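User: Hey, my collaborator sent me this sequence without any context and asked if I could get a structure. I don't really work with proteins. Can you help?
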Amino acid sequence: MRRVKSCLLTAVFAAALGTASAVAEPAIVYSVGGKFDGSFNESAYSGVTRYQEETGVMVREFALERDSQSLQALRNLARRGSAPIVAIGFNQANALSQVAPDFPETNFVIVDMVVDQPNVRSYVFKEHEGAYIGGLLAALASKSGTIGFVGGMDIPIIRRFLCGYKQGALAADPDTRVLFNMAGDTPAAFTDPLRGGELAISQIRRGADVIIQAAGGTGIGVLQAAADAGVLGMGTDSNQNGLHPGKVLTSIRKRVDNAVHDSFLTAENGSFEPGIQVLGLKEGGMDWVLDDNNRDLVTPQMQAAADAAVAGIADGTVKVHDVVTDGTCPF
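Assistant: No problem. I've predicted the 3D structure and written it out in structure-token form, which is a compact way to encode the shape of the chain:
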């Protein structure tokens, strides 16, 4: 009888552990700028919201006020048993590289950077592919023949975006002039709307009549300056068409929402796997937005050209230069 009771207690204890594991609380750590930054973080938040609405499972959220908080935030979430833990932004890579080995049984995710650890899934995007479509549309919409680009921090990801934008513009019109500026060389370059507005105004004064922002929160200032000056802005990361209806040509979305949603869903259904996920136009990681806010700005000819370019990139007939793997931008 004692042996039977012991076996029953063991079974109950094992079942309790299984239940605890099954209901492990998923968590996300947003990058600096807040989850309502209108850009990268907000796209991630959209993925969180979609997952919660579909499953009824709540996600613990933490927004960094400064990059130095990342290490403690990730470690504290791991200690309390959260899983998976999603880190948003390249600036959390160093912290995650330190935390992941200390919690080998915990699944982690990073979006927009690679962390090579056996319990980390890394999502990276083919930004240059989406940027190509942005450049194509900008050149087709421009009346001055001059378009602009305002980037955030001067890093390879943003340079990759710039090169794709240039290539797309020149594919539409080889005479297009592309002006570009970077907002800075630290992560703060993604959180300074005033600086974004100043750079946009400078480009407008030099003739740019379509300006894309690839600058996170800084880009909100770019779009505002463009709208105020009566030229067209172009959004990135999330759908920013509605920020200035009729004045944002389109938004080149980096589907951070899909990466976040996929992370939580695969963890819940037991199919989560570490490794690198590379998402471009073909994989649904990049796209461009046509909705009621910008429909009148995009002619049927422009839409057809963009759709043809998307198809060509997806099937490989259009090759977009990637400065990260292919070297210096030739455009």
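In plain terms: The first strand starts at residue 27 and ends at 30. You can pass these tokens on to your collaborator as they are.
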